[in-house]
Structures are given as structure tokens and as C-alpha cells.
Specification:
The structure holds four protein chains of four kinds. Chain A is an all-alpha fold. Chain A contains 14 helices and two strands. The chains are: A mainly alpha, B alpha/beta, C alpha/beta, D mainly alpha.
Amino acid sequence: MQIRDYILRRLMVLPVLIIGVSIIVFALTRVGGSPIGVYLQTGMTQEEVTELEERFHLDDPLPVQYVYWAGGVLTGELGWSGVAAAPVTDVFLPKLAATMELAISSALVAVVLGVALGTFAGARRNRLPDHLTRVFSISGAAMPLFWFAILLLIVFWVYLGWFPIGRSDPNIYARIDHPTNLYTIDSLLAGDFGAFGDALWHLVLPAATLGYGATAIIARMMRSSLVEELQEDYVDAARAKGLPERLVLRRHARRNALIPTVTVIGLSFGFLLQGSVVAEIIFRWPGLGRWMADSVLRGDQATIMAYVLFTSVLFLVVNLAVDVIYAYLDRRVVLGE
Amino acid sequence: MSLIDGIGPEAAPRARPAVASVKDLRVHFRSKVGVVHAVDGVSFDIGDGETLGLVGETGCGKSVTARSFLDLVPMPPGIKAGGAIEFRPHHTCPSCDGAGCETCDDSGRQAEPCDSCNGGGCEGCGHTGQRTIDLLEISEKDLQTIRGNRIAMIFQDPGKALNPALPIGEQVAEVFFQHRADDLLADAGASDGTEALGGALIQRKAGLKTSRIEDFLLSLPPLRGQRTKLMAAVQTRVAEALAETQIPNPRKVMDRYPHELSGGMRQRVMIAQAIACDPDLLIADEPTTALDVTVQARILELIRDLQQRHRTSVLYISHDLSLVKEVCDRVAVMYAGRIVESAATSSIFTDPHHPYTQGLLAAIPSANHERGRLVAIPGNVPELIDPPAACRFAGRCPYEAPACTAHDPLATTITANHEVACFIHHAPAGDEERPTWDRKVR
Amino acid sequence: MTAPANTVVRTGRDGDDLLVAVRDLKKHFPIREGALQKVVGHIKAVDGVSFDIRRGETVGLVGESGCGKTTLGRVVSGLTEPTDGGVYFGLGGEERRKLDTLLEVQSPDRTDEQSEALSALDANHRVDVMVGDAFDHYRRNCQVVFQESFASLNPRQLIKDIVGRPLRVHREASGSDLTERVVELLEQVGLGRQHLFRYPHQFSGGQRQRISIARALALDPELVILDEPTSALDVSVQAQILNLLHELQQERNLAYLFITHDLSVVRHMADRIVVMYVGKVAEAGPTQTIFERPEHPYTDALLASSPDMKESAQDLQALEGAIPDPALPPQGCRFHTRCPVATPACGWEVDDIVRWLEDEEGMFDELRDVERKSPFEAALSFRSEDAANRLAAALRSDAVPDAMRSAIEDLNTTGTDTRIRFTAVDEVQLTLRSEDHVAACVLNRGTSTEPS
Amino acid sequence: MVDVPAGPAPARITDSAWRVRTRRGGELLMSLLKNPTTVAGLVFIVLLLGMAIFAPLIAEPNTPDAYQMPRDWGALAVPPGSPGHILGTTNVGGDVLYGVVWGARTSLRLSVIVVSLTVLIGVTVGSIAGFRGGKVDEILMRIVDVFLSIPELIFALAIAAVLGPSFRNIILALAVVFWVKYARIMRAQIIHVKENEYVDAARVIGDSPLRIYLKDILPNSITPVVVQATLDMGNIVLVGATLSFIGLSEAGIAEWGVLVSEGQSGISAGRWWSSTFPGMMVFLWALGFNLFGDGLRDVLDPKTESTR
């Protein structure tokens, strides 16, 4: 099979999955009872209620309701957010930018650090660095994000006061324009390095919280796949060619060990998305995650569903991209299918 | 051609120095239940231009022996328990330029002189006057200049020995980058670093020493020309090497990934890579086991042909006696970490002395055997955990005598070039009078 | 000269000793490709194979990897459903004659009566359709010993359970009776009571193969399919197993279908041999005949390239080229692409030119399109006139085999296009060469007799 | 002609299947205990389980519902070491020690219920998909893929939010989310194990598909499920506590996430204890099962060290 066909096939599955997710989301909106509740006011007559139901097609059978609902979603009609007191679509973008800034910076750190750490440990199997990495990654997997964040908060904010919480200093925020809503980018666009430093400064604690878990996952995968690759014949063959160990590792073992790691990197993006809910609550980061948490507490269904739908689609697209990278890295996948 | 025609035991003169001598090699492995003596006192010579077959069944230590040449036995769990592998690099005879003359015994090759005595003979070279390297002692860095350059190796499964994620061309090219960087630079016309930065960079590139940033610099216009030239030079060399192993359309094969080639083609690529630097010694570890018979025959032909043209010495590892008969001048039979018998190929097959060799030969089904009457060696190979000082074949041997379990037989020369490690062939009758030479067991 | 499509390897004596009849057996595996995973072709693993296995005899099935011998073994053992044709078990002499007469008529031409008779035979004897008692009888009487002794024993079961399982499944024994029966079986294969309560990983390869054999013998079958039973073993252990297999065959009058790539083993073990190449039978006959008077050049090549087949110090003869892709088997004789004695009548085709182009430096990249009218006729268009002319010149020179050159009926180049037509050739069929000896080759070495 | 036994531990004639199997179990346990980190994990698990089981003895309940935090209105937010409140109290007078101890019991209840439910559903679905193949497999796996495309915490959060905040709903939400993982592992395992020749051998014998599944396929494919279940005993408490922390449990129950959340507001005032101790319990719980599961994987199936 050609790589093109492989990608095409993945692209064809994508809408099926998105429809599947949307069905689940739709089902969730109906599990908690009719969504009519949002529009009800005290003292409405039975006729008025029925009229409302008709207006929002709530008297139709569920499949028909789903079609109306999905049509609404496709035209950007995501409903009214009670928490933000505005249509969901209006509030979405600036909050998305905040979450993305956090997630992407954590992802960058996690990928670089995770791959490096995993390579370092895997090449020194069963020696001290390997054992330390093992401890690091297992505790990473077992670490409750909310607790780790609170510990960082207690130490670095309450006691040491080294790092701030929130997303930026209000004065500095006011001093520059925000065309992208990614503060680091905005500050660079404005050429204001003070603002850039401030944006980075605010990123440190939440990004460290999120990055720790993701780094642990990636390092662990990288380590074990490297250990596996180092036992393959081609590694010995590379040594037998006279390549120094550095090149055996760099050109041969690591390249192949990265292949399974790439999948894990894709999956760890999901970890970052869901972790952002907790990190944003604790560090008062004005992103999607915190909005989601507030909405959950206040039963703001429209926001919750929009958020679930959006993160799932984002997660799917990221993993599709990862699959494509994977296919390029490992031609055998494509042929083996 | 046939290597064995008319070559009797006496007809293989070994006056010229051996290209490699294994001396009392011991490689052990630590395991849960104890120390496994996988290779336990193996000694043999490989003459220059000779093909030596190392035969034995699963677990006899033949592959470990072969891998020890290039320090490819994983340590731990492996332990270098002793012995030496002496390697004597050769070069083309200067007086006849490879044509064959008096000084080089018509072989066209000559051993390099010893560094310290320049051919005079001293302690370091064992009074042979030849440069002698103990492969077990030298540093990793020195070993890297020998691996793939003076000693090359072919592996059993070419499907696994090639990196699945790199195109064939890049993998073969590595050998040239690693060992022939200067030649490549000369080919590319960049040998005398014309520009300071560019010259240095391209030299680093030729030695595979560039970092990502340097690679990026090289891809920029001012340096790109030189880089392209270098790449063209290496591609020409790779294509030549592949063509040498009769790969059709080598330029096309270079862009392929290993999984896109057939098993036979992959093994040709491995061979091309191994002989690229014209090594003195080629170690072939069961090179045809994973291949079909008709393909196997092609590969054997190829190895034989290359061996003759390049006058490379070959250490051929196999479990298959009939294969070894085809390609080898001399055969050493291994059993349970020891060499039990070694002789010229024809004498092993016509006049085997060790009961194990006899058993192995008789176990091959042939037209002469009545069905159901194959000679099977009873029992299993012994576990090699702290073995006692006794013959390792005791317990399975039809000729076993009390001495066999009490003493450890040493290899003894019975005729010229024929050595056997067994009591029954050199002992007079009567158990009491059996020789009692013991091998030192460590 | 050409025999009907279902020429069968058969002896002169049509006795009642027939056990298995394989008739025009085909197994094709679909190849799926593209974004929609459409079936774009089939791997023709087994492509029309017929032969018999008689009681108490050993039939050797030899060939290289990818020739279909393992798939064939799996179909005969009922593990894989055939695509077409059938494996018939337990036919009497009369029934078998009836079957062969019925099968000589192609299915569209069959009368209702014939179809009915055939389905009646199928229901009782064809392995992939039979049910009930017939199937039970077949299952008891056809067992398999696999190549990988480790993979064929469930690592989580004790030897007692592994060997006793067939007895338990067919309700032949239970409790202490079962244990005694298992001990008996183990003793027959050279193991004993002390091995009852062990796991497979505690045995050596040879011992595990003995366990597999014991399991296969538990139901006292008539046929055992041996799929490369010794190729994972060392030669000295192989000798033990081969001796054991022979001993058991003598005691129990077993029939073996011995699948292997090792000619020395098959010569030692088999009474008759079937040589397969790319899904088809190249040659079949009594062992001695095959080894002493082979009729097919592929058999020659196999013999010449096996070091342990040679008696003297003569050179190994190797074959050029690779084994063809079983999805696109060559026309005519499937061996013509590698055959050293190929003739113009062996099925030269357009694909042979494409293969040639692939191996020629710089030529394949010049090829733009191949427009096929038939496997034997096509127009090849190139990117440059030069390439088209180079091909035409090569096809007229000795850059290609003589036989290929002679098979060209028409060749002309106009601009960047080269049109070519080869002599169209039918698939080469098996023909009878001597008693019980058939080969599929257009050449005849003089011992042939016309098929009866 | 007879081979010399190759394996260790020469078997005696008096062996019975039962004795051999017990010995094998013993060997397995011994190799588990050789790894110090696995032992550490086991120690954490034993201590925490002990705490969960003996909770009524360690911290005596004085409310009708023992899973509700007792409130000491006379000692709000007292620091650790105060009399009667060794680990201090929360802003609303909940005894941190009581929460820590009874939280273990809550967590045990949560993880046991969710793991047994999800393993049961997942293994069934995965087995059907892997064993049957074809259209059934295609449809089931698409459903699994859909479930896997929603990040698990977010999915559970949404379900729990729709159902309304309560601990029971957290259990339900986690069960809905976590089964897919097992279905996927089980299917992959079965497809892999099905290829083994011992399955063919059983078919040649004439054994029924159900018995082949029960004897040959299930025992040889269940190990990764066991390992995953061990890891999930920890992970589920982790995710459950996160949901509680966000606020999806009833307020005031003895649950670690709830306690951390209660303590959160006091952090800026320097009251670190009521978040730190319960949070640490979640960490230790998850760490214990992760360490143990990791060791279990190395012992049961050394080759699949890297599958997760």
C-alpha cells in the first residue's frame, strides 16, 4: 500500500470517529433529562413549554433531534454558556489560545526532555541513570496532578514567592496588543521583551505541572523501545561496520526507537489536554479547562459538550498527524497492513 | 572451481603466517543457575587466504567464538574468561603488486611488519616479525578501525541485520564514510581543504562527524556544491560495491528499504557492505541458513568467487557439514564449547577420527541409509555450567572408557594438519595406560 | 501430449488402499490495497494441485519458501478452507474412480445427475463440506505435527494434559485410565512417566517434537501431516526423530504427508515425492525416479543446488533470479523465468520484459506506461525515443535469453513506443513420463509415454 | 535413544498437577520478590489496604455514616500536632487523619468496583471481537475507537457532570470510560495468540471453539490484562480523586480528592496540611500499584515491557 493510500484511509475513518464522538456527546445532553430546563422560567404555562419544545425540536424522535443538533454544531451554533453569560462560540477562542499556549509549551518541553531522558537511560540499561529514570517515570505516572500542582504552589508561590500564578501581570497585559492571544507570541510581535519574560514566567509552574507527567510517559516509552532496539541484529551489524557507539546509537538504534515513541507522544497530548483542567484551576489560568470545570459545577451543559467535542476532535487530528509521521518513519507499517 | 579437489592434508601448506590465531579462548556467561562455559579453551589458526569452517550444533559456542573477534558478545552477561585472538593485518605484496611472486609465495599478499621491530622479530609479535594485534586487548577506538575495515562480518539473518528504517545505499555508505573518508574527499576533489570553514566541515561530513547544525550549514548554497560532490563520490563507490556482488541495477537498489528486497538480495547487500573495504578476514555466521536452497547456492558461489578474487580469508560458521564441504579448505568441529577435531576438509569427510564427528556425518540422511537406520547420537548436549574436567562427549559416546570421565582430552596432532581431542585414537589398549594429560580448568 | 487439467499422480494399481485424494486444489488469498482496501488480486498460494496419499506410505512434498507447500498441508489437515477443488478423505477404490470420472467434466457442463452424484460424494468425503460422523472420522484419522515444537504446545498446559487432550475431546478415556494411556503414548515416543507433570519449556527441542508426535498419535490416526517436523532441529536430533517416525509408521501402518524443503530428508523418508513450484506441481513420482531421472529442470536445479545431494566434488549449480510473485505467476511454465533450458514455447510474456527493464540501469525509470492487450502483447511507452530504441535493440541481441528472443512474434518501435507480441502459450500441464511419474515441462527427455 | 531431561528441577514420579502448579506459582512469587521496587510497591499496597480494612479501628467513626467526615466545629484549621487532631483539621473542622484513613476505604471501594466491572466488560468485548473477527470485530472496534478518541478524564468529567455530583456517579463514569482499554488489549492479544500453532493443534484434535478459547487462548492472552488491571487499581483512584477534587463528589465525604479541594482555599494563608496529606495518599496508592504492576509485567511477560 502506498503512503498516500494509508493517509487517505486514515482520513476516511476520521469523520466516522467524529460522528461517533458527536453521538456520544448528544446522548450525554439527553441523559441528564430534557435540555429544555435552560429555557424554562417560573410561571410558564404548559402551552408555552410545548411551544418551546417545538421550537427547539425537542418533541421529535431522538434521531431527528440529533440531526438538528448536529446541524447546529456544524453551523457554529454551540449554545449559550451560562458561566460566561455569552454564546459559547464567542468565549471559546481567547480561552482556547490560553490553553493551547500552555499545552504546546508543555508538549515541547516533554518531548525534548522525554526523548533525551529515555535515550540516556536506555543506552545505560540497568545502571544508575536507568534506575533513576525508572523512578522518575513511575512516580510521574502515579503523581496526582492536582497534588503536584498544589505542592509547587505551596513551595514556589506561597513560601518562596519565586513564580507567580495566573496568566500575566495586568499592567503588562494592558501595555501591548493581543492579536493572537498567545501572550508569548503577542509580546514578541510587539517587541516587548519585558512582556515576553512575564508571559514565560507565568508559564513556568503550570507547564512544569503538565510537563512532568508527559515527560515521564515519553521517557519510559523511549527507554524501553531503545533497549529493545539495541538488542536487534542490525545494531550489532552497525558495530561490526566499525561505527563508533555514538553513531550506532544516533543513526541506528534511536531512529528506530523513536517510531513507537511517536505514537505515545500523540497519546500524551490527550494527557496534556485533560491535565490542563486541573492545572488551570490551581494556577488560575484563564483557559478552556478552567471554564470547563466551572461549567461542570454549575451544570452548564452547552459549554461542557462543546468542550468535549472540541478536545476530542483536536485529539483525533493530532493522532492522525502522528500516524502519518509514523508511516513515514516506518515504511513497514504501510506494507504490513 | 573446487577448492577441495586434490588438496589433501599435506597439500595445504601453512608456511605463511596465519591471518588470525585464536589461542585458548574462553567466553563464559553468567546465568541464574551458574556460569555457563559457552566457549572453553578454543584454539585455531586461520591461514592467509584460507577458508576455515567452524561447524557444530546449536549452543556449541561457534557463534560466540565468531562474535568474539569483533567484541560483539554482550558483556554482561558475557565474561571474557581468558585467551587471545591474534590478528595479523596483511597488505598487497609490494614487489609484485598482487600478481604473485617469490616473496609472497604467489599469494600476492604480505603480512604487515611489526611496529616495534619492523619485521625483525620481538616479544610483542611472538618473534614472527609481523604486526600482531590481540583483538581482546585493544581499545574500543582501535577496534573500530578494524571492524568493517580489516575484519568484516556477515550475519545469519540479513532481514534483521539491516536497519529497517534506512535505505540500502545509506547503510552501505556508512562503511566508506567510516573507513575511507580520505578517499571520498579525494574523489570529490575536496581533499586539500580549500576554504577554511567549508573544508573542515566537509571533512567532518566525510567522517560522519557532523552535528545537525553543521549539516544545516552544509545544505546552504556556498557549501552545497562540495556536499553534492561528496555525496556523488560515495554513491559511485556504493554502486560499485553493490555491483561487485552481482546486484542488478545497483543505483535503483540503493534507494530501496531492506523490506523491499528478497532474502537473497539482502544477503548480497550485507556481503557488499562487508567486502567494501577489502578486509583481510571475513567472518560469515551462517550466511545462508535463512535462505532457500537455490538462493543459497548463489550466495555460496558468490562468497567463493569473492574470496578468490580478493584473496580474503574466511571464517565460515555453519551447522551444516555438507555446506562446509563446499566452501572450506579446512574444518574445525566444535562441541560443547571445545574444538574436538580439525583437519583439511577432505580428511574430515573421508577420515573422521572423533566419535562426535563420526556421529554427525552419519546422522545426515543419505541414499545409503536404510530408512529408520540413521545413526543418531543419543542424549542431549550437556549443560555447560561449571563442567567437570572430563571429555564433554562422555555420556553420549559409543566408545566411552573410564579415562573419558576422569580426564580432559587435549587436542593432539595425529597426522599433519589433523588434530583430534579424544583418547581412543592415540591411546594404547588398556585403560590404565591411557594418557592423562589434563587441560587446565579455570 | 497435453493431459486434461486434472491429471493425477496415480499408480497403475487402483487398489482400495487410497486414503486421501487431493483434486485440483486451489487456495487463493486476497490482496487488499488502496484507501478502500479493495481486493486487487490474489496470492495464488496453491493453484490447482492433485495427488493421492495411500495407506501406509509417505508422500514427500518439497519446494522452496512460498511454493505453497505449507498452505497445501493446512488445507489437507482441514485448518484452511480451499478456494476451489477439494481434499477427499476415505474414498474407496470404486468411489475414487467415480469421482475422477465426474471431475473430468467441467462444472458448467455437468448434468443434474452428475452434479447430484458429486455432491453425494462431497458430503461424505470432501473435507471442507463433510459433517457429523464423516467429519468426526476424518478428525480422528488426520493429525498434524508442526514445525515449531515450541509454538505448537500450549505453554500453560502440562504434558499430561497436552498429550491426553485428544483422548478427552473424543471421550476415549478419563481419570487414571487417561493417565495410563498418556504414559503409554509417551513411552512409545521415547519419553516416560516422569515427564507427565512438566511444562513444555522444560524440554529440549527434540523432546518437544516427541511430545507433538505423541499427541498426534493419541487417536491412532491413519494419516499424519508432518510440516517441516525436523527443520528446527540439529542434525543429530533430527536423526533421532526421523528414526522414531519410521518406527511408528512400521508399527501402525501410518501414512505421512511429509512437508519439507530438505531434499536429503525427503529422499530418506518418502516413498513418493511431489515437487511444487509457485503453487503448482512441477513434478511428481516415486522417490528413486525423481532423484535419478528427474524430468523437470526445476527438480534438476533443486538437486544441483543442495550440497548434500552430491556424491562427487562437482560444483553446485545455482539458479538465476528470484522466485516469482505468487500473485502474478508467470505464463506458460511458471519456471521459465529462471529456467536454464527454457524454450520459446515456455510462455514468454510482457512481464518478462518489465522484469528485464527493472534490472537494467536507468531503463525502468524511463518506462512511462505499459498498455497490455494480453499477457503476451503490449505497447510499452517510454519517456525518450532513445530508451525505446535501446529496448528494441536489446530484444534483438543476446542481452536477453535466446528462447525469449525466438518467442517474439512481432516487435516494432515508433517514436517513444515499442510494440511487442510474444507467441501465446497455454499453461503447461503435467504429462505422464513413466509409470507413476509426471512432470510439467514442454521438454521431454525420451522416457515419456502418452497419458492413458 | 531417550533424551536426558533438559529442564531444571527433576520431577518426581509422585508429582501431581496440583503440586507442579503450586510450585510454579511459588517460583513466580520468588522472582517478583527479587526486585526491590516491586517489593516497595507491595509494601505500600499492603499498608494502604491494611489501613482501608482496619479503618474503624484506627479512626473510630462518630457519625451515623462512617464515610462522612466528622466535623469538629471547635477546632477549625488547626495545624498538625494539635491534641486530638494529629494531622490537623480542615477549614471546616474535618479531621485530616480521619479523612486519610477512611479515604483509603473509599478508594478501595472505588477501585475494586470499577476494575472488576471494566475488566469483565472489556475482556468480553475484546474476546468477541478478536475471536470472531470480520464484521463483528470491525463494528466493536469502531465503537472502541470512538470511546478512545475522548481523553479519559474529560469523558468521565462530562458523564459525571451530566449525572450530577455524587460518588456513585463517579464510579459509573469511570466504568463507562475505562473498559475500552481492556477490550483493545484483549483483542490484540487474542489475534496474536490465535496465530500460535497450539491453537491449530487443538483444532486438528477436533476440540470445540469454546474450549479452545477457554484452554488455549484465554490463559495465554490474559497476562497483559492482569498487569493493566493492577496498574488501573492505582490509576482509577487517581482519576476518581481528580474528579472529586474538581467537585464531582458530594461535599464532606471522606475522600482524598475532596479533602485536597477543601484544603486548597487555605493554601495562600499557609495552611498546607489539609491538602498535602490526602494528596500524598493518592500518590502513594497509585505509586504502590504502579510499582507492583511494573514488576508484575517484567515477571509475567518480559517481552512486552514496552507495550504501554
